[in-house]
Every structure is written in C-alpha cells, then in structure tokens.
Amino acid sequence: MRFLKVIYNRLFAPPEIKVFCKQLKNLLGFYPANPSIFKLAFRHSSSAKDINRSNERLEYLGDAVLDTVISTYLFKKYPRKGEGFLTETRSKIVSRKKLGEIANNLSLQEYLEYNESHVTVSPTIMGNALEALIGAIFLDAGYNQARQFIIYKMVINHIDLEILQHSEYNYKSKLLEWSQKYNRKVEFKLVNQQIVDGNNRLFTVCVHVDGKQISKGKGKNKKNAQKEAAKNAFSTLKISIEELETT
Questions:
Q1: CA–CA separation, 17 vs 225, rounded Å?
Q2: Which of 39, 74, 85, 135 is deepest in the core (most CB within 10 A)?
Q3: What is the count of structural domains for the chain?
Q4: Confidence grade of residue 54 (pLDDT, cut at 50, 70, 90)
C-alpha cells in the first residue's frame, strides 16, 4: 500500500504535492507516502486553529523515538561506559540548543509554517519541528527509517561526538532553572577553603535547597567547586536531565 502511495505522489499527485514530495526526498532520503503528515510536522501552533492541527503531538512522538534511537546508539557505541556518561551524552545530543542547530543546518525553517507577526523563530521552535519531523517519519515509513534519519542525517552528519563529550554540561544553570520551575530556593555556600601543596587552594561549596544541605563539591576555585556541588545535587535530588532539556 505504501509503495502505491509513493508512486501516486511521484507521478499523479497535483504539481504542488509533487514539488513538496521531491523536497522531502532531498531532505529525508526517501519519498513520503503521506505528505500531509509532514505538512503537519512543520506547522507551529501559532498558525494552527487548534492543538490537533499543529505539530505538538508529532513532537511528543518524535521525542520518544529520538530518545530510544540515541539511547540504543550510544549503548552500542560505548560498551564500556557507565550510565552517567551515557545519560549525559544523550542529554547533550537531544538538548534544545543542539536540536535547534541541527534543524538550522537541515534548513527546516524553509518548511516551517508559523505566524510571522507574532512569533520569532528560536532554537526551541526549530528543535521542536525537528522532533515533529522524526515523529512524521516514524508514522509514514516506520521505526527503521526514523532510525536511519537520526543516525545518518543528524548524528553522523552534524554531531562530533568527541567534541561533544568534552563540552561541559552546565549543571549549575540547570539546577537554577529547576529551582525556578518548581519554586525551590537554591543557594551555593562556600563553607571552606584551605591551602594545599604550598600555595594552591582547595574550595568546598555546599548546595542548599530550601535551607537544607543537599550536596558538596570541591575544586581549585569557587567556580569549579560550584560545578561539582551542582552535579552532585542532581544525583541527590534525582533530577531528570532530559526533563529539563526538553522544556
């Protein structure tokens, strides 16, 4: 059935549909069977009459598919790495910033439908459109085709995993973002600094949430100590990195 739909779109569909399908072929690497679902994937809520006519539901689906594909890919690629490394690397890949960059590299803004008088296209909007596109691929052509798009069109073409691994995840800013989202009071307190190995100093910083000490961190300066304390707070509080990265 899908084969027949693809043949129809290539040979007998109205001219504007043929053009759109050819554009999708260049973008995706295959001809779509259901071009209307891709139209929906690029429709921002600002130009939709109701939520079911925007890309938000497809974004939800694409987010789940993306998470599964990336998790499996990293699990197989790094067989000796632990859960912490895999989780952090996945979070960097699926962050709004990174997905927005990839969407721009794929020129998705050319397809995006939005209210230009009320909305400024941001990395978040672009990243959401990319996730919606993944959802559309999954519904149109199945999981394997979605996996190929994610691995070959996104990861291999647009992500340097070695550089990404050495980029720092900003636990402090994300912890503060978490505190604002859930109305929690977070404080970083310097509790100790001592001289070690001659003139070198070692700083100790504690994270307090709503007045309660949650974690500690040590470093050669206050900034590094705060980073370590914030990272430890994530573990203690069991904060979901993915949840913060997808908001």
A1: 57
A2: 135
A3: 2
A4: very high
Cα–Cα distance measured from residue 140 to residue 143, given in angstroms and rounded to the nearest whole number: 9
The pLDDT > 90 percentage for the chain reads 60
The answer to whether residues 189 and 157 belong to one domain is: no
Q: What are phi and psi of 88, to 5 degrees?
A: -70, -40
Question: Tokens standing for 214?
Answer: 């949650």
35 lies in the same domain as 131: yes
The span from the CA of 78 to the CA of 98, in Å, is 21
Would you state the structure tokens that stand for residue 5, as one six-digit string? Answer: 């739909």
**Residue ending a domain, choose from 166, 191, 209:** 166
Same domain? 154 vs 181: no
pLDDT exceeds 80 at position 5: yes
Say if residue 104 is in the same domain as residue 225.
no
Give catalytic residues, as residue numbers.
63, 131
- Show Cβ contacts of residue 198 under 8 Å, excluding neighbours closer than 6 positions: none
Phi, psi of 11 (to 5 degrees): -115, -35
Final residue belonging to a domain, choices 146, 166, 186 = 166
Closest CA to 62 of 126, 160, 130: 130
C-alpha–C-alpha distance, residues 151 and 149, integer Å: 6
**Complete edge-to-edge strand list for the sheet that includes strand 186-196:** 186-196, 200-209, 212-219
Residue 41: CB partners within 8 Å, gap ≥ 6? 55, 58, 129, 132, 133, 135, 136
pLDDT in tens, 99-125: 999 999 999 999 999 988 888 899 889
Average pLDDT over residues 128-153: 97
How high is the pLDDT of residue 85?
85
pTM of the model: 0.74
For range 56-76, the mean pLDDT:
96
